[in-house]
Write a structure and sequence with these properties.
Layout (H helix, E strand, L loop, with lengths): L1 E7 L2 E8 L6 E5 L12 H7 L3 E5 L18 H16 L5 E6 L1 H12 L4 E7 L4 H10 L1 H10 L2 H6 L4 H12 L3 H11 L2 H7 L1 H4 L16 E5 L8 H6 L8 E5 L7 H4 L1 H15 L2
Parallel strand pairs: 3-4, 3-5, 5-6, 6-7, 7-8
Antiparallel strand pairs: 1-2, 2-4
Helix pairs in contact: 2-3, 4-5
Length: about 280
């Protein structure tokens, strides 16, 4: 596993990478308040199977890609970053396997829905397709109220000056050993970094009502009920947002970040998905 810098869209993105460059490309998108280190258990395992694995830091999470304006953190900007990183890594218009967790899953759903010709397979952890939230809300007012309550932490996360408290609170809540979280503290524990990272939440009103197409590629959705921020109804209805082969896995008794809390189980599921649908 190697640490590299990738030039894309005028920025320099930090990334972890492994595997033969001629292998099928797998892009891994991390969550918040984490960075590409979140995938460190899975990267070598995928590389051993011959995949070229790249896990980039999202914009705001590394010094070389940290614009100031909130508008620069519209979700489409993250999507365009990922496509540019792929073009820089594999060539313009290259296709790839895509996986995302937490906010990275939200970005992955959007990228796959809007660019189905680029995405070979999709795997998303915890967060479902945006359309699943609309479906659940339309099914009943109780569902809508339930999901709003589960997302109530968005308010605290978007408050200016509250970033450091939220960052440490979220890391402590994860209950991981220090060696699993120390890379996040070293990379992100500064005022500039945290302000940029939490701009993701401040920009949500710019796109949260967008309606996305359904995803036609083979898709794996993994839901850990214990993470508590996604309603059972939204998780269940996610299947309606995929027209291709779909697999829904419920991971009981595992908290976020599930990639680090249950690395063996997650690695097995994700590798199985890749092997089932690789070219």
């Amino acid at each position: 596993m190697e640490h590299v810098r990738i030039s894309a869209r005028g920025f320099e993105f930090e990334a972890l990478t492994d595997g033969p460059v001629e292998g099928e490309l797998v892009i891994l998108l991390h969550g918040l308040p984490r960075n590409c280190w979140e995938w460190h258990h899975q990267i070598p395992a995928m590389a051993e199977l011959g995949f070229h694995v790249v896990a980039p830091d999202l914009r705001g999470f590394c010094d070389g890609a940290r614009p100031l304006d909130v508008e620069a953190y519209h979700i489409q900007e993250y999507v365009d970053d990922v496509l540019a990183i792929v073009d820089s890594t594999k060539g313009d218009g290259a296709s790839f396997h895509l996986m995302g967790t937490s906010i990275g899953a939200t970005m992955a759903w959007r990228l796959a829905a809007l660019n189905p010709d680029r995405v070979l397979t999709l795997a998303c952890l915890n967060i479902p397709h945006q359309g699943a939230f609309f479906e659940a809300a339309q099914a009943s007012k109780a569902n809508a109220s339930d999901q709003r309550e589960r997302f109530s932490y968005f308010d605290d996360s978007s408050k200016a000056g509250n970033e450091r408290a939220m960052f440490h609170r979220m890391l402590e809540k994860q209950g991981l050993p220090l060696e699993e979280t120390e890379p996040y503290r070293k990379a992100l524990d500064s005022d500039d970094a945290l302000r940029a990272v939490y701009n993701y939440y401040r920009a949500i009103p710019l796109w949260q009502r967008d309606r996305l197409p359904k995803c036609p590629m083979p898709t794996l959705y993994i839901w850990p009920p214990e993470s508590a921020n996604i309603s059972p109804e939204a998780a269940r209805l996610n299947e309606k947002q995929v027209t291709g082969p779909y697999r829904f896995e419920v991971l009981e008794d595992v908290h976020q970040p599930i990639l680090q809390a249950a690395p063996e189980a997650l690695t097995s599921l994700l590798i199985g998905h890749l092997e089932a649908h690789a070219l």
